[in-house]
Amino acid sequence: MDVRYAKTQELLYELKIAEVMRRELNTFSPVMTMSELRDILRDHRISGVPVLEGEELVGIVSIEDLIRWLSAGGEDCAIAAEMTKKPECLYADQPLVHAIKRFDESGFGRFPVIDRATGKLAGILTKGKLMEGVLRKLESEIEEEELRRYRASHIFEDITADYKEIYLTYDVPGKDFDRAGSASTGMKRNLKRLGIHPDIIHRLAIASYEAEMNLVIYTDGGVMEFHISPQEVFLRVKDNGPGIEDIEKAMQTGYSTAAHWVRELGFGAGMGLSNINKCADKMEIDSTPGIGTTLKIRMFTGPQHKPDGGA
Amino acid sequence: MKLAELVEKLELDVRTGAESLDVDVTNGYASDLLSDVMARANEGDVWITLQTHQNIVAVAVMKSLAGIILVNGREPEEAAVDKATAEAIPIMVSGLSTFDLVGKLFELGIKGS
Amino acid sequence: MRLSEVVDLLPARVVYGTDSLLAAEIGTAAASDLMSDILARVEVPDILLTRLNNTQVVRTASVFGIKAVIVVRGRPIDPKIAELAKQEEIVLLSTESSLFESCGKLYSNGVRSTTPTEDAQQA
Known about the structure:
The structure holds three protein chains of three kinds. Chain B is of the alpha/beta class. Chain B has helices at about 5-10, 35-40, 55-60, 80-85, 100-105, and strands spanning about 15, 25-30, 45-50, 65-70, 90-95, 110. Chain B has five helices and six strands, in the order αββαβαβαβαβ. In chain B, helix 3 (about 55-60) runs parallel beside helix 4 (about 80-85). The longest helix of chain B is centred in the C-terminal third of the chain and has 10 residues, at about 80-85. Chain C is built from seven helices and six strands. Chain C has helices at about 5-10, 20, 35-40, 55-65, 80-90, 100-110, 120; strands spanning about 10-15, 30, 45-50, 70, 90-95, 110-115. In chain C, strand 3, helix 4 (about 55-65) and strand 4 (about 70) form a beta-alpha-beta unit. At the A-C interface, helix 1, helix 8, helix 9 and helix 12 of A face helix 2, helix 3 and helix 4 of C.
């Protein structure tokens, strides 16, 4: 429910009035009579119409105006005498949240909507139309995401083969500190879509991010390869040097060879490899100084997966 | 408030500089970036950090800080202990995180620097 | 308390945050300038307070599942960091207050830390 509530809130900012307003308009000219208005409102089951002189909006007349006219005796007259003149308008490009605020503040039931570029009447917005637009959009967006997730998480069931695997790779450039981490955050989204257990995603995202930061900070870049099969997610991180002199030492919490600039950016505290080890179900590291390092991380997603488990 | 009182109230373990706890502390500085502490901490501040290497002692000496509190149960590295002992700089250890420790200091009336 | 109340309390400037994101209820926080220290924790805090103002603060929040980042001491925030916060849907706040004052005020209003890492306690 929370997600849907948040989504609705977002939509109120995202959706523009133009997307939900009524465009097919009955319009009136100011010289038409109130009795004609009564017939049209009744026949078309609408609650108000804009009044135009040529193409210019001069007023708006609603069922409330009609009732007031009727209770005052209902003596026929031109609409111009009973309509709200120079009505307050909204612009078609404004977000819905603005319209809601105006409805609240004014107590009006409808607003004419003007196209900002031409200054001409583009439609009319009622509270009902607004609500309908939000609901329609909400439904389609949630369906879309659920469908995407459904398709992805069933990919292994829907496709038949003796061996099934999704293989995704990312090239990680070295020393590009701003971009660093984008492979891991992107992969986190992918795994969500694939319907992987949230606990596994959380641990893999941390391990993957620490590994990616190591590539960026210590090497000239490398490759991250993700193999997703029904049994596990396997990540291989490969670089071409400089390599790790003493892996045992490097695994110790607090041991670091990081340069000062790295520490000042919030990394290099000597916790990266131990964090990876803690998060992974299985971790292997091979390194040859001068040649390069290969780090392998496994997360079990099959029956042997324990939801509480770290290594 | 005397540093010794803070040690008692927050149940800090004193690792070095026990002879230097009889000083008044009114302000605190929380940071894990040495350059930040060098640039902005003031004389007499108590410094809260999770950095444990010997450079923290050099910073504390240069800035004349009242003492260093290590958080998350971290222990000072050996070289840091040696240096701090030589310089009579108090290094204290707390099992609390930076957030909670600073919160408690704040409630005891210690202000940000 | 809600993030919108945190904005009033510190006070802070909203660098990125929609009304719905700012309506999030928060109860826990972590203060650190070392991202691996955050990532080593067992529990995920709702907010991260730091003096760092680089893109990795937002990435760390995204990787770990932290709702909001508060950059202290009014450090300038590059537009590309704000853009990343938007993309990752992480609330980004900036306050003139120090890390110390910010933690103190939040603590006084009932916000608490998550458990620090077990490893660090053994170290």
